[in-house]
Amino acid sequence: MNFVPITLPSHCVTYGIDASTVCIRPLVGKDEEIIVQLGGANTSKKIKSLFESVLQGIPDIGQITAGDVKHILLWEAINSYTPSYPINYICSGCLHQQQVAADLNGVNSVELPSDYSQPKRLKLSLGEVSLRLRTLQDEINLAKYQEENSVSYLFSYAQCIVDSDMDIVQRIEFLSDLPTKDLSLIRRFFVENDHGPDMKCVVHCVQCENEEEIVVPFQFQNVLENATKS
Ligand SMILES: [Zn+2]
What we know:
- The protein has 230 residues and is α+β, with helices and mostly antiparallel strands.
- 36% of the residues lie in helices and 18% in strands.
- The protein has two domains: 4-111 and 196-228, no CATH class; 120-192, no CATH class.
- The chain is built from eight helices and eleven strands.
- Zinc ion (ZN) binds at residues 91, 93-94, 96, 205, 207-208, 210.
């Protein structure tokens, strides 16, 4: 199969590998067998099996950052199908509602700073916390937790706390008692280190020739349907 090099927005800094060794191939029929199953609670699990087959050079696929996951899915949408993504758009200039095709090749991928390292130690009003970026495996664990529990908000952050002295229950308890100002600091860590495609695209109004940048509501599971439109 045709594997080609891919540059990931995380620069692979959290994988402990040489970023230049990572390769990817476009999708084939057997991959669509997985794509048609995407959308439910098992989506992240299915994406992991898809990546195990289309990627080379990353030993632990579960450790792929959430930002890289978005970048890889966008790469597959563009290179295995089409960069043209149909969206409903209301022009802010003339309010004309229309169907336009966003060009996914125009989407910018935000890179993680190349000197990024983790865990990142964060000073809180009550002590300190060490954090790491969210991964594909975290998404899989979160989906499982959501099935078994009614709430998962604090769990999603507790997963990314690096502390060998606390198990996941203790980490959730730690967050439960934390002042909301400290929780904001934790959230800011994820915002500041968010990477991957920003999904912003320039579109042109067919009626008034207005040109504006919008955020494309990209859903990877729509690739099959979109590819049959032209
Ligand atoms: Zn217009």
